[in-house]
Amino acid sequence: WFVEGREMKLGSGMSLICIFSLYISRFAERLAQLEEAEGAFDYFTLSYRSFGIQRRSDNGLVLREWAPGAEAVFLTGDFNSWEKQSHPFTQKEYGKWELYLSPKVDKSPAIKHLTKLKLVVLTKTGEYLFRISPWAKYVTKTLDAITYDWTHWDPPQPYQVSVYTPPRPSSLRIYEAHVGISSPEEKIASYRNFTRDVLPRIKDLGYNCVQLMAIMEHAYYASFGYQVTNFFAASSRFGTPDDLKHLVDTAHSMGITVLLDMVHSHASSNTEDGLNYFDGTDSCFFHGGSRGNHSLWGSRLFNYSSWEVVRFLLSNLRWWMEEYHFDGFRFDAVTSMLYHHHGIGTSFSGNYSEYFGIHVDEDALVYLMLANHILHKLYPQCITVAEDVSGMPGLCRSIEEGGLGFDYRLTMAVPDKWIQVLKEVRDEDWDLKNIVQTLTNRRRGEASITYAESHDQALVGDKSLAFWLMDKEMYTNMSALTAMTPVIDRGIQLHKLIRLLTHSLGGEGYLNFMGNEFGHPEWLDFPRKGNNESYHYARRQFNLVDIEHLRYRQLYAFDRDMNLTEDKYGWLAAGQAAVTTLNQADKVIVFERSNLLFIFNFHPCNSYIDYRVAVEHAGKYKIKLNSDELQYGGHGRLVQDTEFFTEPMPFNGRAQSFLVKSIASFNHCIVKRFVNYTLFSLTDLCV
C-alpha cells in the first residue's frame, strides 16, 4: 500500500507518506481533544440523549439546544396555546440553551405524545424566528401546509426493536430502494407497503442487503432525499418511526442487511423547517458566506471544523444505528466533502496532485475518519460505503494506514461506460478491451461495489439500460406469446450479459436499483410543477413481473439465478479476475475468478463451434447457468447437461484447456467442474 507513496513526490516535494502521516496525526489529535473534553467519544456521540427533548424517569422534561447566535430562545406549541415567550430557555456556556418543564399534577409529562411544537429564536437584530429543533425525531406536514411541523414523538408504548441482526455478508449484493416509489400505484407508498410487498421480492431475488434512500426527512419529495431538512427524523410521508423500525426488523428476520443512504455532505437551504439560519446567522451549522453554499445544488455546506457540528453529525450516525438498528451507511457525495471545489468543473485523471494539496478540505476528511473510526469501533459489523467519483487514494484503507476507513467505494465510472457504449457504439464495434479495463480499473486493496445502473440512470432526462436497449418496443412487444422482434431479442440478451459481466468482473460487491433487475420500462420522475404533480412515473411497476406471459419475468428470473449462483460460489468475495481470453474480433471474453470460468460471447451475429478456452484446473465441467435458456428469454441453443473434459493442452497461459462445443451469439454460460473420483468433492465452478 505504501510502496508507491515512498516514491511518489507531489509538487511541493512532500511525499504521499508524509501526507498520510499528517492525516493520521490530525485525526489522532482531534480524537484526543474530543475524549479529553467530553470524557469519551461514546458519550460525545450519544448527544441525541441530551439534546432536543429528554424525558426523565419522573416525567420531567429537559430541553437543550445549541444556538450560539441567538439573543434568546423560547418554546411554544399546543401545550401552551402557542404563547411565544411564556417558556424561555436559560442561556448556558458555549452557545447552549436549556429549559426544564416539570411534570403535570397527574405526574404525566408537560408535553404529550404528538404535540406540535416550535422553537422561537430571538435574533441579535430583534427578529423572532420560528424553528424546528435540529434534534427533532419526528416532523409532519398537513396537506395544505407549506412547511413541516415539529411533532413530539414519545409514544406511551415504545416499539421494541428485535435484537437479532444478520451476520455481515462476505459477498455484498445490494438492492437500492426508495420506499415512496415502491408501489405500482400512483401514490406515495409506505414503510408497511415496502415491508409487505417489496422485502419478499428482494429476498427471492437473492439480494442480501437493501440500501434505503430518502429516509432522513426532506421537505422536497423530488429531491430524492438528498436535500435533508431534519437529520434525526425518519420521513413521515412514508409512515411513523415505528413503521420504519418494523421494516428494518422484518428485513433482519429475512437475513437481509439494511443500509441507510446518509447525507452529511450538505443540507437543505430551508429555514423554517431546516437547519439553515437556525439561530438567525448563516454560520451556525454551516460555513458563513459563499463557502457555506453549494453553487450547483443550492444547499448549505457543513463546517466540519466546528465542535458542535461534529457532535451533531456523529450523534446522528449513532442515532440511526442505535434507534433503528441500521447495519451501516452509504455516504452520499463524498467528493463534494473532500475538496473545497466540491468536484465542480473538475476532472480527475488519476494524477496524485489532484487528490492532495490545499484544495483538499482536511476538516471534512478528518470528520470522515472520525465517523468510520467510531462506527467500526462500536459496531464491528458496520458497513460503510463511499460515493466518490474522484478516486481518492486510501478512501477504503484503514485509518491506521492513513486511509479514511470506508469498507467499500462505488465504481461510478462503470454505469457511465455502459450508457456511453449503448448510446454511441454499434454492437459490432464494441471495444471489449476498454470495457474490461473500465470494469477492472480499481485501486488495489480497496473494495468496490459495482453496478451497471443505479437510480441516477433511471431519472428523467436519462434512460435505464432496458430503455436504451428496447425503447418504445417495451410498450408493445414484451409478450412471450408472440415471437421476439429483433429489438427485443437484442435488448433481452444484452441486458443479461451486461449485468452478469458487471456482477462478476467489476468489484467486490454488486448494486441494483429497484425494478431494473426486470428491465423496468420508462424513467423515474417525481411529482413537480413541470409534470403537473403527477405520480405516474414516481412508481415501480412490479405488477409487470407478476403477469406470466410478459418477458419481464424472464429478466427477473435471470437476475435471481445470477444472485443465487453468486451466493453459492462467492465470486464477489474472491480476488480480482484473471482474464484469459479477450478476443476483439470474436467479441469473446473468458476469465477465471474464485475457481470459476466465465465465458461471454458479445458478438451480435456469430456463434462458435469447438471454441477453446483455458482453465487452471483439470476435470469435468458442467453448465450451471446459461443465459440462452428459454426461461431467461434465450433461444435454447445449448444442451444444458453437456459435459466438458479438460485436456493437458496449454492455452493462453494455462496448463489445461477444453473445447466448448457451442458459444451462441449474445450469450454466456456457467459450468461446474467435478473432480473425477466423487461427485461431492467440488473444487471450482466454471462460467
Structural notes for this entry:
There is one protein chain. This protein has 687 residues and is α/β, with parallel strands linked by helices. The protein is 24% helix and 21% strand. The chain is built from 14 helices and 28 strands. The strands form six sheets. Strands 10-11-14-15-16-17-18-19 form an eight-stranded parallel barrel. Strands 20, 21, 22, 24, 25, 27 and 28 form a seven-stranded antiparallel β-sheet that branches. Helix 2 packs across helix 8 (362-378) and helix 6 (307-323) runs parallel beside helix 8 (362-378). The longest helix is centred in the first third of the chain and has 23 residues, at 16-38. The chain starts with a helix and ends with a strand. Residues 1-8 and 674-687 have low confidence and may be disordered. Pathway: Glycan biosynthesis.
Topology record:
Layout lengths: L2 H5 L8 H23 L2 H4 L7 E4 L5 E6 L3 E8 L12 E2 L4 E6 L14 E8 L4 E4 L7 E2 L8 E3 L20 E7 L12 H15 L3 E5 L2 E2 L12 E5 L6 H13 L3 E6 L44 H17 L4 E4 L2 H5 L23 H17 L4 E4 L21 E3 L2 H12 L7 H9 L7 E3 L4 H4 L6 H6 L15 H20 L3 E5 L38 H18 L8 E6 L4 E6 L2 E6 L6 E8 L4 E7 L16 E3 L10 E8 L3 E8 L7 E5 L1
Parallel strand pairs: 10-11, 10-19, 11-14, 14-15, 15-16, 16-17, 17-18, 18-19
Antiparallel strand pairs: 1-2, 2-5, 3-6, 4-5, 6-7, 6-9, 8-9, 12-13, 20-21, 21-22, 22-27, 23-26, 24-25, 24-27, 27-28
Q: Which labels suit this protein?
A:
disordered C terminus; 8-stranded parallel barrel; 7-stranded antiparallel β-sheet; 21% strand; disordered N terminus; 687 residues; alpha/beta
